[in-house]
Amino acid sequence: MKLSIVIPVYNVEHTLERCVQSVLNQKFRDYQLILVDDGSTDGSREICHRLSRQEQRIQVIHQKNAGLSAARNAGIKKAKGEYITFIDSDDYIGSETLKPLMDELSIRHDYDILEYSVYEHFGRPKHMHALRLDHREYTNMHEYWYECEAYKHTYSCNKIYRRSLFYGLEFPVGKKFEDAHMLPQLLERCQTVATTSEGYYYYCYNTRGITANADGHDLNDLLQAHIKVLRDSTLLSPPDTVYYGHVLNIALDVYRDTGVVPDLPSPKEVNVQQRAGTRTPLKMKIMQTIGLKRLCQLHKLIRR
Question: Which ranges in 30-95 belong to alpha helices (H)?
Fold first, then answer.
């Protein structure tokens, strides 16, 4: 079997069938489709069973509600494909997506991760954005993280992975923005990552979704994932000023929502470097002058 597709399911009776049909309508057919019912209390459980009766490649797993990470981990354990990918049940993939991606992987056996384009916040007119990726290969994960700005699209769902990358790894149960925690760990195991213009993932805006309802404590989970990269990742060191500015913005949002000054390491402490052709973010310059605490207070005052 070439591909395992894991779809976590939790109270998505209005979008689940659209998601599954977007897979069933693909021309590529050599896959298993794993629906992980994470303790749904609406009609999702029944939809899972109905779909599995209609299509033998669909396998259904039921578990007590434990969150998105636990559902993905359960799917990984049941996966048998050489490659694995994830689709969230309130999203879907574009037609003619899987075949060109899998055709490329059948030729390029050296690709550990193949990332494809994503339509972000689809269905929210003023915020929709097409992240259109070009074809490019990275054997240096530092370049992929910083030059491709992979840290801005750490999504688990717009990528196809060599399944063996996950041996001994699990998504962090109980944390939000779990994909930002997982991707740096996977990159430590990669020799080659590629991006491609083939295919599209539709990341749909959901008013009840995790991202739309993230609070300061959830954003702190995201911040901690990036702080770990700043402090501990030898593969992705040294960080550059653009990335540090991105992490600083998350830290400011955490303070705005929680009132707690985050333990963000200073640029000097983590040896931040200036990337050629880029400027030091203004907020970073201000922080170096007045300190993180005062910058947090100023930012919160301005954002009122």
Answer: 44-54, 68-78
Q: What is the mean pLDDT of the chain?
A: 95
* DSSP code for 16: H
Q: What angle do CA 251, 252, 254 make, to 5 degrees?
A: 65
Model confidence over 132-190: pLDDT tens digits? 999 999 999 999 999 999 999 999 999 999 999 999 999 999 999 999 999 999 999 99
Q: Give the predicted TM-score (pTM) of the model.
A: 0.95
In angstroms, rounded to a whole number, what is the distance separating the alpha carbons of residues 151 and 43? 35
Which helix (H) or strand (E) segment holds residue 90: the answer is none
State the residue for tokens 């490649």.
57
Q: How far is the C-alpha of 225 from the C-alpha of 240, rounded, in Å?
A: 16
**10 Å Cβ neighbour count for 169?**
14
Question: What would the pLDDT profile of 223-275 be if each residue is shown by its tens digit?
Answer: 999 999 999 988 899 999 999 999 999 999 999 999 999 999 999 999 999 98
Determine if residue 26 is left, alpha or beta; phi over 0 gives left, psi from -120 to 50 gives alpha, anything else beta: beta
Specify whether the CB–CB gap between 19 and 89 falls below 8 A.
Answer: yes
Taking alpha carbons only, the member of 219, 226, 201 closest to residue 259 is 219
Torsion of CA 96, 73, 221, 237, to 10 degrees: -70
Q: What is the CA radius of gyration of the chain?
A: 20
Tokens of 253: 């949002």
